[in-house]
Amino acid sequence: MPVLVATIVPKPGKLEDVEAALKEILPLVHEEPGCEIYALHRGDDRLVMIEKWSDSTALKEHSKGPNLAKLGERLVGLVDGRRDIVTVEAVPTGDPAKGAI
Amino acid sequence: MPVLVATIVPKPGKLEDVEAALKEILPLVHEEPGCEIYALHRGDDRLVMIEKWSDSTALKEHSKGPNLAKLGERLVGLVDGRRDIVTVEAVPTGDPAKGAI
Known about the structure:
Order of helices and strands of chain A: EHEEHHE
Helix content of chain A: 25-40%
Strand order of the largest sheet of chain A: 2-3-1-4
Mean pLDDT of chain A: 96
Oligomer: homodimer
Low-confidence stretches of chain A: none
Strand content of chain A: 35-45%
Number of helices of chain A: 3
Largest sheet of chain A: 4 strands, antiparallel
């Protein structure tokens, strides 16, 4: 079950605009097949999505789907193109309620 | 409620050793006050912890506590010192079951 940490660093002064774009798209992504978690987080200078997909097929469909394309369009001019995506696999350990997202 | 993404990049060939050290320490961290999530993930060249703490006080106690110190001792010689920690705040949006960890 793939887990992703996707980081978007907006251009200076554009954090609120990028957050608004993400908030628009999030409910649509939640309806995509295989979306288990797609959760927005805000840091001082960045927005971080923590994602969990049921399998790599669902993730691939999301990656080439219309919602992510729409987000890409909304982000034109707001980010420097620096979008860091780290894909990992869960290693559930310890307390089942705390050891996995 | 602070969320952290902590990335550890082991020295070449040391991924399994670092994972073992993390698996040892995880159940202890789960028992710390205010630990909501402390979840291990493995990538090709890195281990990623996704953490959620009840508040900044609990996180501060964890940061200076004995379990993290013990982990630091176990990691001596296994990592290059590159430990990246990103602290963010949740912005729950959309489906409550999918829009937050």
